[in-house]
Amino acid sequence: MNHENPYKSAAAHQRKKSTPKSSFSNKSKEHVFLIEAGREYMALCDLLHAVDLVNSGGAGKHMVATGDILVDGEVELRKTCKIRAGQIVIGPGFRIQVKMASDAT
């Protein structure tokens, strides 16, 4: 009887078993992003890049495509979703509160 183990070692198997299902944690890094005056919104992928969570807008699109991004508590899969002041964007290890620059004072 041949039982093939898909894991290279017992330690890898244990890590796989203990990995949490959700990548969100209570210890998220907080960001406040100010939309500049004259702009109504910012694309989600560009917002992720603007707060330095990814190295490019393309990497932001990839992050959104994984399904790990919540906008106002709902999973968001639209890469260029319009994010407006008052919205909250949450992902693995971060939380972004979006405000208008004029409201920040």
Secondary structure layout:
Blueprint: H1 10-18, E1 29-35, E2 42-43, H2 44-50, H3 57-65, E3 70-71, E4 74-75, E5 82-83, E6 88-91, E7 94-100
Parallel strand pairs: 1-7
Antiparallel strand pairs: 2-5, 3-4, 3-6, 6-7
Helix pairs in contact: 2-3
Word description of this protein:
The protein has helices spanning 10-18, 44-50, 57-65; strands at residues 29-35, 42-43, 70-71, 74-75, 82-83, 88-91, 94-100. With 105 residues, the protein is an alpha+beta fold. It has a domain at 32-103: Structural Genomics Hypothetical 15.5 Kd Protein In mrcA-pckA Intergenic Region, Chain A (Roll). The strands form two sheets. It has a five-stranded mixed β-sheet, with no helix packed on it. Strands 2-5 form a two-stranded antiparallel sheet. A hairpin with a 2-residue loop joins strand 6 (88-91) and strand 7 (94-100). Helix 2 (44-50) crosses helix 3 (57-65).
CATH architecture of the domain at 32-103: Roll
Instruction: Please report the total strand number as a whole number.
Output: 7
Give the radius of gyration: 18 Å
By DSSP (H or I, 4+ residues per run), the number of helices equals 3
Tell me the CATH superfamily of the domain at 32-103.
Answer: RNA-binding S4 domain
CATH topology of the domain at 32-103, by name, is: Structural Genomics Hypothetical 15.5 Kd Protein In mrcA-pckA Intergenic Region, Chain A
Low-confidence stretches: 9-25
What is the CATH C-level name of the domain at 32-103? Alpha Beta
Q: Largest sheet, described in full?
A: 5 strands, mixed
